[in-house]
């Protein structure tokens, strides 16, 4: 079973949210409908700016925890390495 670590944002260099899920499509739709993380709702974090697939949910959770401990600059570098324009990757990844 695959799992995903993903980063949501509201705009380039905006607020960042790192999450993990087994069903990326469903989870992003939840965020967009205001049913995702309570943290995301007030900031309007509806843009999927980064996603990486893992072989197991355990691996994805470990990666999520590591990424949440990173400095903000490292997270931005990760996003911009894949997505320099901070485009919404929802239709690209899925």
TrEMBL record:
Extent of the signal sequence: none
Per the record, the domain of life is: Bacteria
Which PROSITE patterns would you find in this protein's record? GIY_YIG (PS50164)
| Boundaries of every GIY-YIG domain copy | 1-77
What InterPro entries does this protein map onto?
GIY-YIG_endonuc, GIY-YIG_endonuc_sf, UPF0213_domain
SUPFAM superfamilies reported in the protein's UniProt record: GIY-YIG endonuclease
The entry's family comment says:
Belongs to the UPF0213 family.
> What's the protein called, per UniProt?
GIY-YIG nuclease family protein
